[in-house]
UniProtKB/TrEMBL annotation:
Family, as annotated: Belongs to the glycosyltransferase 20 family.
Source organism per UniProt: Microbacterium terregens
Pfam families associated with the record: Glyco_transf_20
InterPro entries named among the record's database cross-references: Glyco_trans_20
Protein name, per record: Trehalose-6-phosphate synthase
CDD domains in UniProt: GT20_TPS (cd03788)
Length: 473
């Protein structure tokens, strides 16, 4: 097998497997931002991507796809249940999102997490050339950095944490907190979304492992009586802004935006929510606020519609099944109470759409609602801003989303404060165009000046320092 100078390791591969009517199989690039961000680097460095193909028991040999070498890691149905749905998405996910849903601590899930992380580490070790750079992604693979370092001391290892890192008081619930911290500290550079996340991590390392930390540096014991330096700091992720701008300028997309407004009965105001159907997104808080505004007559269904796209996610995890029931009950009640024959209060779509359709929706929407209770970054906020090439529209943004650190001109909300949220929604619908323009222009500047390419360049530059040092030693 050819070895790669640059290896990305993520739970998911950047492709989806499709099977057509005749049973013919093919691979299609999956729409994620990470894929687009890393594509140029992958092509230049002859990179490899290690990950799961998204289906249980699928055994596929490594293959090349559009200039990237893909190395599939097989997960059995049991691995999917215990490592992915269990430990990753029913322990770490709720714990790291401040226990919005109760994390379950199962020893059987933990054992599977260790086993599967080991498998990812082995696949990465086999794919990496001498002195390669390996970049591990996200909470499903927190043990991989240490495992990989033990197998391959020559490689330079980065880890990026896409979700929040919780305060120590919550993190310390985790029965395997030491192993997780040690696992992450196998990396040379550990990247977080917010400065606060990096701070929480450093505090956990000090309190739990008693290692010294200084600014972003952590002294990690390494051999007898010696230490090595690891860097833990914020590298806020972004989007491929130019692709959104291009779509927003496309005549077909603009026509589609008009068509969307017409098909909703040309309401005066459209609110929009776009989320994976996840309990971290604060969808019920937003529905509550919207329902109350209708009930109080501050808005009415003839003039206002809320479009809520909730894309299906993790549908076999109990908390997600329950959430879907709750949301759909609430939507049904609000629509039942307020709809007329010609107008709907909430157009609810439990579906996923291609990027063109999303940009058309962003252009059609007057107010974008991002009311997450906790979110690593929230790229939808940035996608909305990038798409508004007309400098119109208002972004309502939760202070609990990482994006709030960068998009200071959004209308900021605490989604738990329903009265405050309602007032913010009213302020947004009444905001004069000049003020919308001022706020949108400033937010756009930030997103355009710091796109996902800048993010990966900055992270890889930090890693290159470690690689250069290793080569000299
Ligand atoms: C979040 C996580 C990603 C994950 C994505 C979709 O953004 O940070 O690691 O891939 O959700 O979730 P899924 O479980 O479908 O991969």
């Amino acid at each position: 097998m050819t070895k790669a100078e640059f290896v990305v390791v993520a739970n998911r591969l950047p492709v989806d497997r499709t099977v057509d009517g005749e049973g013919a199989e093919a691979w299609r690039r999956s729409p994620g931002g990470l894929v687009t961000a890393l594509e140029p680097v992958m092509q230049k460095a002859d990179g490899a991507w290690v990950g799961w193909a998204g289906q249980p028991d699928l055994d596929v040999e490594p293959f090349d796809f559009e200039g990237t070498h893909l190395v599939p890691v097989t997960l059995t149905a049991e691995d999917v249940e215990l490592y992915y749905e269990g430990f990753s998405n029913d322990t770490i996910w709720p714990l790291y999102h401040d226990v919005i849903s109760e994390p379950r601590y199962s020893r059987v899930w933990w054992d599977a997490y260790v086993r599967v992380n080991q498998r990812f580490a082995e696949a990465s070790a086999a794919a990496a050339a001498e002195n390669a750079i390996v970049w591990v992604q996200d909470y499903q693979l927190q043990l991989v950095p240490k495992m990989l370092r033990e197998m391959r001391p020559d490689v330079t290892i980065g880890y990026f944490h896409h979700i929040p890192f919780p305060a120590y008081g919550l993190f310390s619930q985790l029965p395997w907190r030491r192993q997780v911290l040690e696992g992450l500290l196998g990396a040379d550079v550990i990247g977080f979304q917010r400065v606060a996340d990096a701070g929480n991590f450093a505090r956990a390392v000090r309190r739990q492992l008693r290692y010294d930390t200084k600014a972003s540096g952590i002294s990690v014991p390494h051999g007898v009586g010696t230490t090595r330096l690891a860097l833990a700091k914020a590298f806020p992720i972004s989007i491929d802004a130019s692709s959104y701008i291009e779509l927003a300028r496309n005549e077909n997309v603009k026509a589609r935006a008009r068509e969307i407004r017409e098909s909703l009965g040309n309401p005066k105001r459209i609110f929009l929510g776009v989320d994976r159907l996840d309990y971290t997104k604060g969808i019920s808080h937003r529905l509550k606020a919207y329902g109350e505004l209708l009930a109080e007559g501050r808005i009415n269904v003839e003039e206002t519609t809320l479009v809520q796209v909730a894309s299906p996610s993790r549908e076999r995890v109990a908390a997600y099944i329950q959430l879907r029931d709750e949301i759909e009950l609430t939507v049904g009640r609000i629509d039942g109470d307020f709809d007329t024959m010609g107008h709907t209060a909430i157009r609810y779509l439990h579906q996923a759409y291609p990027r063109e359709e999303m940009v058309a929706l962003f252009l059609a929407a007057d107010v974008m609602l991002v009311t997450a209770l906790r979110d690593g970054m929230n790229l939808v906020a940035k996608e909305y801003v990038a798409s508004r090439v007309d400098n119109r529209g208002v972004l309502i943004l939760s202070e609990f989303a990482g994006a709030a650190d960068e998009l200071g001109t959004a209308v900021r909300v605490n989604p738990h404060d329903i009265e405050g949220l309602k007032d913010a929604m009213m302020r947004a619908v009444e905001m004069p165009p000049a003020e919308q323009g001022r706020r949108m222009r400033a937010a756009r500047r930030r997103v355009l000046e710091h796109s996902v390419e800048d993010w990966s360049r900055e992270f890889l530059a930090a890693l290159a320092v470690f690689r250069n040092k290793r080569e000299k030693d």
